[in-house]
Design a protein that fits this description.
Elements (H helix, E strand, L loop, with lengths): L31 H5 L39 H10 L21 H14 L4 H13 L3 H13 L3 H13 L7 H13 L3 H13 L8 H13 L3 H13 L7 H13 L4 H12 L7 H13 L3 H13 L7 H13 L3 H13 L7 H13 L5 H11 L6 H13 L4 H4 L7 H13 L13 H16 L2
Helix pairs in contact: 2-3, 2-4, 3-4, 4-5, 5-6, 6-7, 7-8, 8-9, 9-10, 10-11, 11-12, 12-13, 13-14, 14-15, 15-16, 16-17, 17-18, 18-19, 19-21
Length: 464
């Protein structure tokens, strides 16, 4: 049933910051109905004349009002707001202001001075951003989003990045990934490599409300890579290896993976090993592939552990060593690598150079299915069909039908003589139950049964 499984694996780019999502208006207007609740019971209007104001000599009247024409950088409100709440990563903060981490932020001073600074200078982006940090520090997420959004719309890169991550994080029930994209774009256009990388990931994969756009994704990856992003270099290698947004070009993929490796990316080591194992874009060199897989496996890359196990199990590029392969499969499977689960299950099922253990095989196959590998259904069916202890033809047939429904054509490719007679009859019955078979239940896996399996497989491929 098995085929060679060494594979390159994409490491998803994930941006991380401190917060969750979007924003609405910076101020909330009180509705007239709300104002009516606070109307005094007595008539507060005066009918007698007000006393005359005390006149002051001309030239001595002072106007303390702050206007937008005033320089916010000279304002004591802005200065004190920066001292209390500036972000250490904010490149717009004044010289000499170190910034403070969110957990250490002086909330009392921040509320006082950042509120005054924002009221005095509505379009001063840094003050709005600092106010958003203050609101986050005291747990007022909605108010924080409002302030961050004001700053983002004034082209503050870190504020735009924060709003994007908040939207993507789903802190507001009516906002999601698609709403995050415009804010990521604001930050990305301002040169924030992390935003460029995040955009690349979202546009590569798509999301609810967001159509995948690999062409745009690759353009953002290029911009991030030009700024030295190791992750972007890896993603460009993946794009060229698989033809995502660019022509498929394994030679260029190998170059990008090499560049990522030189910058310290351990996942790229595994993927370059895959190219050498298959002679794709580079000369076929199985020994070098083993070296790269081992290097990545030692650094904790689970896919590399599984790939190294495959090479050891089959003696490719190294001496055959099934016990060591089992060790690597077990380590990878324990870390959640589904391919290693399948490989380990197969070795236990067949007893290939290790004691056969159908129970262990079944357990690993079921774990692989739970981890998303639908082909594990066929393996589970095979255990129930062939193992004398766990034999259960009804269960075997049901798992084979589920495999076909999931798009795995292995049951349909089996020859008529490869079926156990009782399992074959139960297979016909199971196909009948799902409306794919109308023939006799005779256990003869002839043309009618084969057509029923093909029909069921075709339905899965049509998504019906």
């Amino acid at each position: 049933m098995r085929s060679a499984i060494t594979a390159s694996v994409r490491r998803l780019a994930v941006a991380t910051l401190i917060l969750p999502a979007p924003g609405w208006a910076a101020e909330r207007m009180v509705a007239p109905a709300d104002m009516a609740k606070f109307a005094p019971a007595d008539d507060y209007r005066r009918t007698d004349p007000l006393p005359a104001a005390n006149p002051q000599p001309t030239g001595m009247v002072q106007d303390f009002r702050i206007t937008e024409e005033a320089d916010p950088e000279q304002s004591p409100f802005v200065t004190e707001c920066d001292v209390a709440a500036a972000d250490p990563g904010d490149e717009t903060r004044p010289e000499g202001v170190a910034g403070v981490e969110l957990a250490a932020l002086d909330i009392e001073a921040g509320v006082r001075f950042c509120t005054m600074a924002h009221k005095a200078y509505r379009t001063h982006a840094r003050s709005a951003f600092n106010l958003g940090r203050v609101e986050m520090a005291r747990g007022a997420v909605e108010a924080a989003i409002a302030a961050f959004s004001v700053a983002a719309n004034q082209a503050h890169p870190l504020a735009a990045m924060t709003v994007a991550q908040l939207y993507e994080g789903g802190v507001l029930p009516d906002r999601g990934v698609a709403d995050a994209v415009p804010f990521y774009e604001l930050a990305a256009e301002a040169g924030v490599a992390q935003a460029q990388l995040a955009l690349g990931g979202l546009l590569t994969d798509g999301a609810p409300g967001l159509t995948a756009d690999p062409d745009r994704a690759t353009r953002w990856y290029r911009k991030a890579a030009a700024q030295g992003s190791t992750e972007a270099a890896f993603e460009l290698g993946w794009a060229f290896e698989n033809g995502l947004g660019v022509p498929r070009d394994p030679i260029t993929a190998a170059r990008w993976y090499t560049r990522a490796i030189d910058a310290g990316d351990i996942n790229a080591i595994n993927n370059l090993g895959y190219l050498y194992a298959n002679g794709t874009g580079v000369p076929r060199d199985e020994e070098r592939a083993v070296t790269l897989y081992r290097q990545a496996a030692d650094l904790g890359v689970t896919a590399a552990m599984s790939n190294l196990g495959w090479m050891l199990e089959n003696g490719i590029g190294t001496a055959q060593n099934v016990p060591e392969a089992v060790q690597w499969y077990s380590q990878a499977a324990g870390l959640g690598e589904p391919q290693a689960m399948l490989n380990l299950g197969w070795l236990y099922l067949t007893g290939y150079d290790i004691p056969a253990d159908a129970g262990a095989a079944l357990s690993w196959f079921k774990r692989a299915y739970a981890a998303g590998r639908t082909e594990a259904l066929s393996y589970i069916g095979e255990v129930y069909e062939t193992d004398p202890t766990l034999r259960d033809p009804v269960q075997a047939a049901r798992y084979y039908v589920q495999a076909l429904q999931a798009g795995d054509g292995w049951p349909a490719r089996r020859g008529a003589g490869e079926w156990d007679g009782e399992t074959a009859r139960e297979m016909q019955n199971a196909l009948f139950e799902v409306g794919a078979y109308q023939g006799p239940f005779d256990g003869a896996m002839g043309a009618g049964t084969k057509e029923a399996m093909d029909r069921l497989l075709a339905r899965s491929q049509l998504g019906s």
